Amino acid sequence: MTRLWTLRDYRLLFSASAISNLGDGVSALAFPWLATLITRDPMLIALVAFATRLPWLLFSIPAGVWTDRADRRRLMVQADLLRMALTCGVIGVILTVPAFPVEQDLLYIGALSVLAFLLGSAEVVRDNAAQTILPSVVPGERLEQANGQIWSIEQVMGSFIGPPLAGLLIAFAVPAPFALDAITFGTAAVLVWCMVLRPRARPEPRPVLQEVREGISWMWRHKTVLQLAVMLGVMNAMALMTLTVLILFSQEILGLNAAQHGLLLTAGAAGGVIGGLVCPTIAARTGQFRALMIALPVFALSFVMIWMASSPIMVATALFAEMFAALLWNVVTVSYRQRLIPDALLGRVNSLYRFFGWGMMPLGALAAGFIVALAEPQLGRETALRLPYLLGAFGMGMVWIYACFRLRL
Q: Is 54 left (phi over 0), alpha (psi -120 to 50) or beta?
């Protein structure tokens, strides 16, 4: 059986994923923390999160057509270079802050939201191409192992190292984390450019709607893939609803500063790292369906724990459990899709899957702001900040019940 680390292209892809996710992890803390330095309005903070995730709803489907038509390696390089340029734009906005009157919070948040939207658009193209290219890099029998390793390093860099580093960099200078982001995106682009893949036969371009219909037709015939996509959409909406509130929960209920909040997020990263290493074995021993039946109730339990929490330790434990469950879900469902979907349709079907699965995230982020803003006058600030976690637990529980009775792998 082929050893993954003997494959040069896999090493380059793995390294590029590690470095670019370090940048993602830094910006995951730096962006919302920067927003809280400008305003404590939950709707304005939610607006930045909404803008970051909106491209998954708008561009997932056309990105899939593009991925199947184009050189996937080149798409990844171009997307990372664009993210590097846009991150430099964020630095430019930060440096102009003294020119903005303090009362014009909306103008500053609007500028951040536009840049977040453009960064998210580039991420849609990059991530779809990266997930689609993996079956061309490793043999089919190694997909679970390769996905587990890549997700583990993404968690180490993106959640274990990135957020605490962002907290330290913010304390040093607000533009510093974004400067590091730009460097990581540029380095990742160089690594992907060095990959040498076998040329793949690409069909002659046809009308976009015709190509999209082919992907829809395939997914409609394979109802399990469609079920998983819709379930993931609900789960991601709940996850983004809670994640959007977490920055305020951390500051106002737990009393953490930027560096401490970064350390809190490393608990989730630890769950992801361990999950990436252990979850392929769990999936192999329990079977795909039982593995998902383990993951789903853990999601709901983790949200209940945060809803009840008053200490960072309890929140950290919940984040660890949530991310472990997420890795178990991903190891099963992504490998299932990569093995099942024909290569000629992989980009389009993956994009449709992400349209359902990731397109709900901006709605979850926006819902977080509405829920807190509407609940605060009647329930008080603290109860309002806890409410999204209770609703998230209820939503995850409904997904679990649905899967018990309707999902068949």
A: alpha
Give residue for tokens 């682009």: 189
Q: How many residues does the chain have?
A: 409
Number of domain units in the chain: 1
Q: What confidence category does residue 102 fall into, taking pLDDT thresholds of 50, 70 and 90?
A: very low
Q: pTM value?
A: 0.77
pLDDT in tens, 38-63: 788 888 888 888 898 899 888 888 88
Q: List the CATH number of the domain containing 79.
A: 1.20.1250.20
Residue 19 belongs to what domain range?
Answer: 4-198+206-406
Q: What are phi and psi of 254, to 5 degrees?
A: -90, -20
